[in-house]
Amino acid sequence: MQTNSYARAPRFDFRKSLPFWLIVPTIVVLLAIQVYPALYTAWLSLQERTPEGWKFVGTNNFTRLFSTALFKESIGHTIIFLVGYSALTLILAFIIALLLKRNVLFSGFYLTLLFVPWIIADIIAGLVFRLLVAPEYGLLSGILQNPNLFPPNGLSVLTAARPDPWIGNFPFPPSPAMVFLILAATWRALPFVTLLILAALQTVPGEVLESARIDGAGGWQINRYITIPLILPAMVVALFNLTLGGMNGVGMVFSLTGGGPGTTTYVLSFLLYNIGWTQLAFGRAAALALLIAIVNWILIFSVLRITRVNERSR
Amino acid sequence: MRLISHRSQRGLESSLVSIALIIVCILVIVPILTTVIISFKKQADITRKPPVLFPCDTETSKLDWSACRWATEGYERVLVPKPSDKALLGFELTGKMFKIYIPNTIFYATVTSFIVAFLASLSGFAFSRYKFRGHNALMAGIMAVTGVPLLTNLLALYQMGIILRKTLPFYNDRLFLVFTYIGFFLPISVWIVKGFFDAIPRDLEESALIDGCTPLGALARIVMPLAMPGLASVFLMTFIGVWNEFIVAYLLVNKNEYKPAMFGLYDFLSQNIINLQVIAAACLLIAAPIIILFLFTRRTFFKAMVEGAVKG
Prior knowledge:
The structure holds two protein chains of two kinds.
Chain A: H1 18-44, E1 47-50, E2 53-56, H2 60-67, H3 69-101, H4 107-119, H5 122-133, H6 141-144, H7 176-201, H8 206-214, H9 219-248, H10 251-256, H11 268-278, H12 282-307, H13 309-312
Antiparallel strand pairs in A: 1-2
Helix pairs in contact in A: 1-12, 2-12, 3-7, 3-9, 4-7, 5-7, 7-9, 8-9, 9-12, 11-12
Chain B: H1 2-39, H2 43-46, H3 73-79, E1 81-83, E2 91-93, H4 96-129, H5 135-145, H6 150-167, H7 173-198, H8 203-210, H9 215-226, H10 228-244, H11 247-252, H12 261-271, H13 276-311
Antiparallel strand pairs in B: 1-2
Helix pairs in contact in B: 1-13, 3-13, 4-7, 4-10, 4-12, 5-7, 6-7, 7-10, 7-13, 8-9, 10-13, 12-13
């Protein structure tokens, strides 16, 4: 964040090798746990396991991956999941942040309370929501499985079949389990995004808002033309964190739906787990892993460009 | 007159905001409260159709608070207390959760956070105070590394684990897991710590150096103490991250005695499909320590989180 770090050169004579030795341990760990495995996965994506060992198969893994129906379906699920939970989280977080900014009595207390879902592990959050809709015995199941409210047979979130897609094979409208997954993910991501937006809101100068009010701008106009443009960078950062978290996290899918019912909550990261560790097709899993990593990098570097964080932190 | 009406309007507005916030808080907390309620139910009340929120109904009335059938069955099945003469309270907790899984988690989280905070402060100091060739490239590289998804690396780490298990005589799942966690939490921590170091004025160090202090001495005696709140927040973030982490351990650990709590919890899920009270109790017991830790350290924690989000 600071711009002063290299504004002036070090005045005193450091031993030339010291920074090198300070960084070496970090670099060694990162090479072993991040860089080497990533390269290994890239190599793996071009291999296939045979009884004699790994065999080079070129882009075979990719073409096989692209031709699987479940891969295409999972892309659809991932898009629905990401759009649904990011939009819901951003809108709700913006509203809650606007409320918290009023600085009413106990707003620190509210913020702390609101934060509890984020501290909880994703696998626990998934379980907490699973308890609500567990077939037959979940607390909400009593209401949802009432045939009068949800004709014709009532709704069982974790076993309901997929509704017929409207457009081609794109899995929209989402299955009830997917909707519930989105709600659970929103619940967990909400505090974090609220805090980010609140921090940005507090940098909006009060005089600007005051003068807009004097000029006769209404509440919505102020939000639309002043507040939202000013906090847009924070919104982008939040969206980026949401997308990365949503695309790479699997804990909640594991504990809430297990990918089911059927394959209706298979997102790409869960598919990766499934191909890799259930089907033990490591080559194809590596191909998928590589694709996800590339999407991640595109996201990270485009956000860095948009927000110019790299400029500020240098 | 005008002033008064303005003021009362303010008061009305702020109470409306308060009411809205209270409603939001209640909605957010409801899933946790229902989990608490479920954890104190009896098996017979869990498997009732249709399900009831409070196990407090009698033959004559729907909700009679004096007739509630609360039970600690769920907790007992997680903790498995057995009477023991040696133990402090007259009984001993023999459930795997408290004998094996949670101690494992505490071990992994503590060791990882110490090492991450230490390594991050060394390299954060170097990145913050020195300019050298490849400085910016290395920082960008560390950022790029955070973009590799966990599962992408795990694919390779899983294979590495299998090979190392066969070839290294001193190999141990525990060691490998901690090392992996360090690798996963280090990059973002380096960025955060560098940010905190950048904010510390250099004049203090410079005078210490002039007085004959070595650069490492300056780091240990001046910069680190000043950056303590920042280092503490990195420590906390890593601690909570490791505590809550599931998939890495799930894929890399295969011995029962090395499993952390989240893995144990996942086992509970498959063993207790109908015993919702056991799952609820296990969830609460594992989440409680981290929630309490958060309540005491929330300021430190918020700081690292905003920093981390902006950085990457």
